[in-house]
Every structure is written in C-alpha cells, then in structure tokens.
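Subgroup meeting minutes
Present: P.N., E.W., G.H.
Scribe: E.W.

1. P.N. recapped why we're keeping a running log of single-chain structure predictions: easier to compare across weeks, and new members can see raw inputs and outputs side by side.
2. G.H. added today's entry (211 aa).
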Amino acid sequence: MKPEHQDVILQACGASSLRVGAKIQTLWSGYGEIVRLPLEGCDRPSVVVKHVRLPKEAEHPGGRNTDRSHARKVRSYKVETHWYQNYSTNQSCRTPACLAACSHGDEMLIVLEDLDVAGYDQRRTSVKDREIKACLSWLAHFHALFLGVAPDGLWPVGTYWHLETRPDELEAMDHAELKAAAGDIDKILNECRFKTVVHGDAKKLHGGEGV
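Output recorded in log:
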C-alpha cells in the first residue's frame, strides 16, 4: 500500500500504525481488493479498506471486456464512493460508516468501519427461514428509508442490468419477440411512480454488480 494511502487511514482513525491484514476478496474483473487492516494506537482494532486499482486491461469472467464495460465500472466505483461519503442509514438497515475516501490517479480508497468489530462477525454459506426474513427486513427498511429520495450523485437508474447500459447484449439477443418489446418494457419501468434506492450487494444475488 502506498504511503499516501496509509497516511489517509492513520489520520482518519487517529492510529499510530497499521499492519497488512487478510484479503477479504478481490474486486470484480481484477479491479482491486478489499482488505482488513489491524490498527494500533487508537480505539479501533481494525478497519476494512476497499482499494480500487483501475487496470489497463481488465479480465471479465464472461469475456465481455469492452471500453463501455470499463467506463461503467469506473463510474460505479465513483458512485459507490459518493454513496458512502454522502448517505447514511439507520439501525434497521445498518451499513458500515465511511471513515475516509480519496482518489490518487488511477486508484481509489474507501476506508470503512469494520462490522466484525461492531458485532456483525458471522458469515453464511446457507440460510434458514429466520435469516431470509432478516435479510428481507433489512431490504424493506432500506427501500422505505429512501423511497422518493432523489438519487443525487448516484446512478439515475440504479440497477446494473437496464437497457441503456446493455446495447451489446440487446443486439446479441436471439429472442426476437422479447428483443422487440425491450424498449417498451424499459419505458414502463423507468416511468413507475414509486422509486427508491437499491443496494448493489443485494442485486449481486441476481447477477448485478456495484452500487
């Protein structure tokens, strides 16, 4: 990690030093990583850092590697940074607090509260009815909180798979009837009365990406 990035983290947390911790996961298409960094000399034992490094050539797992795709990912990370810096939730739909965020050239850094430390330290590879209901409750409170809120600084249309972002996929579609109806379907969805903010992690379950 670059010294300027370390300085941002140390200053944001009031820490005297940090250690390189465990990598939580690699970002989509090799655009960086999320790591947990142990801290010393402050009241936070650790933070989670999303470190975005924009590659010159990205590898898309589906082979869809285009300039449009790259530009969309860059914009997605900028939107995510704006979200953490400018929006907040409540205890009914808890999200990690943003402690700092910055950009240096082709790199972006988001320093987040470590939710493990806050008591959310469990992970699931399978869920039961109670846990499914907890997830749905979180989403319901999240959607209710932002119902009718203008998405300033966010995506104007907050789902990754909408028609404006998918001209290549539309052109390649074999289903002629659905392809012909795509424009009308998109128009109906965009003109619906009740709109809210959607969260990227939830729509990833359905094949999406980003916030």
